[in-house]
Design a protein that fits this description.
Low-confidence stretches: 6-13, 16-27
Order of helices and strands: HHHHHHH
Distance between the termini: 76 Å
Helix content: over 70%
Strand content: under 5%
Number of helices: 7
Length: about 170
């Protein structure tokens, strides 16, 4: 009887945290919507894929800055292809932007590793850097207003990715 109690307690003690960790991992937020993932997969050329990432970031900026009403016509036009605007807290959306930029960096790095003379690399990197300048200009005032730890962390991650992109673009001939 005591052996069963000890065994049950051991199972709860050792398996319980694993189950909780797995449940937390399963609830991880996706930084792209399903339609955006499909558009990324469709865009095989690096420059076109970077354009999809930039548009995905712009959609999150619309939500963060509440400019979706001003862009109602554009949203209606894009709705079929891009789907509904993403939702979430400001911390979630800023983290999404950081993860999207990180994915864009990874895509450029992957192409560069295969063919560092690919002419789409500088073109894509310049386009991404130009977008990052616009993004950071819009989000800089909001980063100063960050209240929660999650928001501060999201803005820090975004700033790190933005600096990486701008540094890489600065090294282009």
């Amino acid at each position: 009887m005591i052996t069963r109690i000890v065994l049950a307690f051991s199972l709860v003690l050792f398996i319980g945290p694993t189950l909780l960790f797995n449940a937390a991992t399963l609830q991880k937020r996706d930084h792209l919507t399903a339609q955006e993932v499909d558009l990324v997969k469709e865009a095989q050329a690096l420059d076109k894929r970077i354009e999809v990432f930039i548009k995905a970031v712009e959609r999150r900026l619309m939500v963060i800055t509440n400019s979706s009403a001003a862009n109602a016509k554009q949203l209606k036009k894009d709705a079929e292809r891009w789907g509904e605007l993403p939702s979430g807290s400001r911390a979630d959306l800023v983290a999404d932007i950081a993860h999207i930029l990180d994915e864009a960096i990874t895509n450029i790095d992957d192409v560069s590793a295969r063919d560092e003379r690919n002419p789409l690399i500088p073109k894509s990197l310049r386009k991404l850097a130009q977008s990052v300048n616009t993004i950071m200009a819009q989000l800089k005032p909001l980063s100063a207003q960050a209240k929660s730890d999650a928001e501060v962390a999201s803005f820090a991650l975004l700033d790190e990715d933005a600096q990486s992109i701008l540094e890489a673009a600065g090294k282009l001939p």
